[in-house]
Amino acid sequence: MTAYIHVPTVFLMLLLGYGLLALLISLSQHRASDASDLRIWNLGSWSLVGSFGTLALREVLPNWITALGSTWMLYLGAAMYTQAIYRFLFQRSAPTWLWLVWALGCGANLLLLGLSRHYRVMFSAAVLCTLLLPGLWHIVRARHTQGRPLRLVGVTLAITIVTLSLRAAHAAHQPQDYVDAMQISLGQGMGFLVAFVAMLGAGFGFVLAVLERDAERMHEMATHDGLTGCINRITFDAMLVNALQRARRADEPLSLVMLDLDHFKAVNDAWGHRTGDEVLRRCASTVQAQLRASDVLARVGGEEFSVLLPDTDLQGAAHVAETVRMAVQALAIDNLQGGSIRVSVSAGVASTQGPDGPTADQLYQSADAALYAAKAAGRNRVHHASVLSMTPA
Ligand code: GH3
Ligand code: MG
Ligand code: MG
Fold first, then answer.
1. Tell me, what's the pLDDT at 177?
2. How confident is the model over 296-303, as a mean pLDDT?
3. Is the Cβ–Cβ distance between 329 and 340 less than 8 Å?
4. Of 229, 324, 244, 325, nearest to 280 (Cα)?
5. Cα–ligand 3 centroid distance for 388 (angstroms)
6. Ligand 1 neighbourhood includes 281 CB (under 6 angstroms)
7. For residue 379, which atom of ligand 1 is closest to its CA?
8. Which SS3 state, helix, strand or coil, does residue 70 take?
9. Which of 227, 228, 259, 265 to mutate to test the pocket of ligand 1 (most atoms within 8 A of CB)?
10. Which of 127, 139, 252, 295 supports an S-S bond with 105, CB 3.0-4.6 Å?
11. Is the C-beta atom of 225 inside 6 A of ligand 1?
12. What angle do CA 251, 304, 299 make, to 5 degrees?
């Protein structure tokens, strides 16, 4: 086994691999809103490149510079990886003791400089494990809420920590295997090999985890309204078309409710737009609370919302709309002056049933006309159109 692992070759691959990984992340035009975790991870990778680069220059640099520089940067890389995992999972920094361990580890390595190399191998394994363990621990704890790439990071970290521990035990028993960094021995070979695996698994795993998270965020932003969290108009329109087709095929009823807050401009004028925004948020959550899980609420305009009610006939939809109207009317939103803001909503309901139902546009127009009728009749009320069961001419 020992003879098959050519340490200088593995080392060269390691240096090139980390170098390329760090370079690629640095060059990528990643503009996510919060990519500080990726930046920190990349700094960690550069730190490891620095560590291995220093080791590669050991023929030209003084011995103590190689020994200290490579170890310190190795510690720094591990600490940064843990820091990046904290940022990714909790959007906050790692605890201060992590950096204390890093500083103490660096200081202790200075004192250990005169000792035989295998002592330093054992000590640095202990420091590296201490620096990496918190990241692994939190990934394990968050395994159910995180995607597969981060789990891969966890598995790779676990392999790294186990190998580092075995290597330290091996160094205690076979000091002659650890005389030189480039020595062709099982201990050195395993050390570099695991660092290579860590680069592939943890390095790329973390980058993928960040990209996956940002893709999810972008999808959320593209399909949802940022203020209320409701789905947006484009997504709602697509869902309505789908739901109409499904209802027609299954010969089930389907209803659409259009909601428009009454005199909302007056709320803004009286309390300001910020308060107006808060009122919109509260109204949206109040409406949502009255709906079933299969119903879909969307914000389709400034203070306009639409509700899609699958498998619900006109009577059922009018009942839901009335419940929503009463819930909004009962809503009291605190203002800064200690009073409360009251709002009301008007609703227009349209329904369809049968194989020759209306198109989405026709259903919309029908609900919209009912909404205008509710406004014209004095607001804070529900109006409904007749059931659309035939394709209108
Ligand atoms: P009506 O009863 O006839 O519906 O009267 P209205 O005042 O609600 O209707 P109008 O269409 O005249 O005004 C809508 C108001 O909604 C005006 C606009 O400032 C406000 N609005 C639209 N979008 C937002 C938003 O995102 N935040 C806030 N605060 N206000 C908004
Ligand atoms: Mg309006
Ligand atoms: Mg309005």
1. 84
2. 97
3. no
4. 229
5. 26
6. no
7. 2
8. helix
9. 265
10. 127
11. no
12. 70
In the structure encoding, which two tokens stand for residue 272, read together? 């300001």
Q: Is the CB of 192 under 6 A from ligand 1?
A: no
**pLDDT tens digits, residue range 234-275?**
999 999 999 999 999 999 999 999 999 999 999 999 999 999
Tell me which of 4 and 198 has the higher pLDDT.
198
Any ligand 1 atom below 6 A from CB of 258: no
Is 349:383 a contact under the CB 8 Å cutoff? yes
- What's the rounded Cα separation, in Å, for the pair 11 and 182? 8
341 class by beta-carbon count within 10 Å (0-12 exposed, 13-18 middle, 19+ buried): middle
Question: Is 211 exposed, middle or buried (CB count within 10 Å of its CB: 0-12, 13-18, 19+)?
Answer: middle
In this model, does residue 144 exceed pLDDT 70? yes
* Domain 233-388, CATH: 3.30.70.270
Per-residue model confidence (pLDDT) at position 390: 41
Tell me the CATH architecture of domain 7-222.
Up-down Bundle (1.20)
pLDDT for 18 beyond 90: no
Q: How far, rounded to the nearest angstrom, does the alpha carbon of residue 62 sit from its chain's CA centroid?
A: 45
CA-nearest residue for atom 27, ligand 1, is: 277
338 Ramachandran zone, left/alpha/beta (phi>0; psi -120 to 50): left
To test ligand 1's pocket by mutation, which of 258, 259, 261, 264 has the most ligand atoms within 8 angstroms of CB? 264
Ligand 2 centroid from CA 307, angstroms: 15
Kindly list the protein residues that place their beta carbon closer than 5 angstroms to ligand 2, a single-atom ion.
260, 304
Could you tell me the CA-to-CA distances from 24 to 28, 84, 88 in Å, in that order? 6, 17, 20
Cβ-Cβ contacts under 8 Å for 309 (sequence gap 6 or more): 254, 255, 256, 257, 295, 316, 317, 320
Residue with the nearest Cα to atom 24 of ligand 1? 302
Q: Which atom of ligand 1 is nearest to the CA of 227?
A: 26
**How many residues make up the chain in this entry?**
393
Q: Where are the domains of the chain?
A: 7-222, 233-388
Ligand 3 mean position to 265 CA, how many Å? 7
**Pairing between β-strand 332-334 and β-strand 340-342 as defined by DSSP bridges:** antiparallel
CB distance 263 to ligand 1 below 6 Å: yes
CA–CA separation, 172 and 177 (whole Å): 10
